[in-house]
Design goal:
The protein is mainly beta. The longest helix is centred in the middle third of the chain and has 6 residues, at about 45-50. The protein has 1 helix and 8 strands, in the order E-E-E-H-E-E-E-E-E. The chain is globular. It has one helix at about 45-50; strands spanning about 1-5, 35, 40, 65-80, 85-90, 95-100, 110-120, 130-135. A 5-stranded mixed sheet has the order 3-4-7-5-6, with no helix packed on it. Strands 2-1-8 form a 3-stranded antiparallel sheet, with no helix packed on it.
């Protein structure tokens, strides 16, 4: 699975004139796309979600840990026993609601989400609320 960022939120379908065309960066339909992670692990179940990235000595570049939930709710992320800074995305229906960079051991943040994604620090650079981030097979 991959984690893909759509700059304009990906909400606007291409017009008939744009369909099948690419912009100067090679993106079809004028939507900027960027792969944030080539390897996405799903933290499914209470134990995996409770552990998150805790106790991992390193976080590989191109890696993301996604926490899928059934419905949007307030989700809190901490970095107690997380040894590296991380970027965290809070998503509702693939739309970015909040983006935070958390320090090791002392980071704490929360936001509304049906999916939370943890990435190595810097991987979410340029991702902003209103953008779209989706997990694709």
């Amino acid at each position: 699975m991959r984690l893909v960022h759509h700059r304009d939120g990906g909400a606007r379908p291409p017009t008939a004139d744009e369909a099948g065309t690419t912009d100067e960066e090679g993106n079809a339909d004028g939507v900027e796309r960027r792969v944030l992670a080539d390897e996405v692990e799903l933290a499914e179940g209470p134990l995996a979600q409770a552990l998150g990235l805790m106790f991992r000595r390193s976080i590989p570049e191109g890696y993301a840990l996604a926490f899928p939930f059934e419905a949007p709710a307030s989700r809190t992320i901490h970095t107690l026993f997380v040894f590296r800074p991380i970027d965290v995305l809070w998503l509702v229906d693939d739309e970015v609601v909040n983006v935070e960079r958390l320090r090791p051991f002392r980071g704490l943040a929360h936001g509304l989400a049906d999916t939370v994604v943890e990435l190595p620090a810097g991987a979410a650079e340029g991702v902003e609320p209103g953008d779209t981030v989706e997990i694709v097979a």
